[in-house]
Write a structure and sequence with these properties.
Shape: elongated
Structural class: alpha/beta
Number of strands: 15
CATH superfamily of the largest domain: P-loop containing nucleotide triphosphate hydrolases
CATH topology of the largest domain: Rossmann fold
Distance between the termini: 107 Å
Helix content: 40-55%
Largest sheet: 8 strands, parallel
Number of domains: 2
Strand order of the largest sheet: 10-11-9-12-13-8-15-14
């Protein structure tokens, strides 16, 4: 704030929940102070999504409660007529999404941005990843050279760094994203399972492991999965809110408002819809699909365990996701180890539990399997619900097609992590489920795992061939003795 108040251009990077919005709103209100209807637009804030723009508008009204400054909102999804009316009122501050704002600029010839003194590119990395680079450059060229420009972001990709060089004058770079990538108060739980077992695992977590008093955000890869999970929860008697990019803006606002008011405790989202959403008291995050980039994982889980609160990030890991898990822990510089197998637990239960607790206390991450008995039990119920719901049946194929497209377009893991993933030892049950299973059940699982890993020296055909030879030999032997 001191650098911004001094009039300098600033490029600031910090994780979600660190106060970036207040960092640019407070100096803006201090600089503009009073309403000036004849001056034109004096401040411009560009946000990547309608939800974030609406949220910023709300914070601006709250912080500027005792100011007479006028603020306008220009976002996609609203009627063009109403937004022309917003501009006709000569607001001091405009909060906008780049696509709609640039479209309006192209339609209104006499709309000048030369009066803008204060420009903010909020969640700038997302502005670029969502494809707004062209619109941003067009808007930039219409601004005065004497403006103060601020860029706030969670990360700094190469394209954004080049944009910052072009748009900011000798910027002061502030990085608060280096020391603590993940809150020390956040528990990380990585569960290995198959793709088709995720529904059962999620329902078990929501019902049995997550308190009904805790708010949970569930990240999925596509809008079809958002709708599928929402209907499934509804069929199971669970009420959820949802948000995705193609969703009607009014509906999104209603759903997010209900979640913020704690009328619902579950929020199902895609990454695009969740960008910049501020849920102050969020308790848990569930990563239904493993994020392809470590920084995306950090952005998701950074919403939990803020301001001294604790929380948990539950992440599902399929065999295809293991290289991404390795990449993440290389990025975090955190040790990663598999949970001890059931045979290891049976040999020294107390010693292994002590070792696990010590590893977790040392900041290591332990990944482990979801109990198969729980998955099998819940899967039967899920199949029954789906088969009896036409809406869920209709969504199964779109979900499968969308997920295939998602897999084709997501970033690839490093080649080194792909190689290392092939050599990883088999993991045991995740430590979280130690209280679920009795010693005799652990023994049964250990026996089952030994059967799975058993590899006979001969194939069935070879064994049958030898058996046939043996029978033939006995027959011949009998024929010789008893002609």
């Amino acid at each position: 704030m001191p650098l911004i108040l001094a009039g300098l251009d600033v490029a600031a990077m910090a994780r979600t929940g660190s106060g970036k919005t207040a960092a640019f709103l407070v100096p803006m209100l201090q600089r503009l102070r009073h309403r000036d209807p004849g001056a034109g637009i004096r401040a411009l804030i560009l946000s990547p999504t309608r939800d974030l723009a609406t949220q910023t508008l709300k914070f601006t009204h709250q912080l500027g409660k005792f100011s007479d400054l006028k603020t306008g909102l220009i976002v996609g999804g609203g009627s063009m007529e109403s937004q022309f009316e917003v501009l006709a009122d000569n607001p001091d501050i405009i909060i906008a999404t780049p696509g709609r704002f640039e479209h309006i600029l192209s339609m209104v010839d006499d709309l000048s941005l030369r009066s803008v003194e204060y420009v903010v590119f909020d969640e700038a990395d997302s502005l670029f990843s969502l494809g707004f680079a062209e619109q941003l450059h067009k808007i930039l060229h219409k601004l005065s050279d004497t403006r103060q420009t601020l860029l706030f972001s969670a990360t700094m990709p190469k394209a954004l760094a080049e944009f910052a060089k072009a748009g900011l004058r000798d910027p002061q770079v502030i990085r608060l994203d280096l020391d603590k990538k993940i809150s020390p108060d956040l528990k990380l739980a990585f569960f290995t399972l198959r793709q088709e077992e995720k529904l059962a695992a999620l329902l078990y977590l929501v019902r049995e492991r997550i308190s009904s008093e805790e708010q949970t955000m569930i990240f999925v890869s596509t809008k079809y999965h958002v709708e599928f999970l929402n209907i499934l929860f509804r069929e199971e008697g669970l009420e959820a809110s949802l948000s995705y990019g193609a969703m009607d803006q009014e509906a999104r606002t209603i759903h997010i408002s209900r979640f913020r008011a704690r009328k619902t405790m579950l929020l199902i989202v895609t990454d695009v819809a969740a960008r910049g959403l501020d849920i102050p008291l969020l308790d848990n995050v569930v990563n239904w699909d493993f994020p392809a980039k470590p920084k995306l994982f950090i952005h998701r889980v950074g919403r939990v365990a803020r301001q001294g609160r604790t929380g948990t990030a539950f992440t599902f890991v399929t065999s295809e996701d293991m290289p991404f898990l390795l990449d993440l822990h290389l990025f975090l510089s955190k040790p990663l180890r598999p949970a001890p197998t059931e045979e290891e637990l049976l040999k020294d239960m107390d010693g292994m539990n002590l070792k696990i607790n010590q590893s977790l206390a040392d900041g290591e991450t332990i990944y482990g399997r979801f109990p198969q008995t729980i998955l099998d039990l819940c899967s039967d119920g899920v199949k029954e619900v789906i088969s009896g719901c036409t809406d869920l049946i209709a969504l199964e194929k779109p979900c499968a097609n969308a997920f295939r497209l998602y897999l084709k377009t997501r970033a690839m893991p490093s080649k080194e992590s792909v190689r290392r993933a092939k050599d990883l030892p088999r993991e045991g049950l995740h430590p979280m489920f130690r209280d679920v299973l009795r010693p005799d059940e652990i023994s049964a699982i250990a026996f089952s795992e030994r059967l799975k890993s058993f590899r006979p020296k001969q194939t069935i055909l070879e064994a049958e061939g030898e058996a046939a030879k043996s029978r033939s030999s006995k027959v011949m032997h009998c024929f010789i003795l008893f002609p």
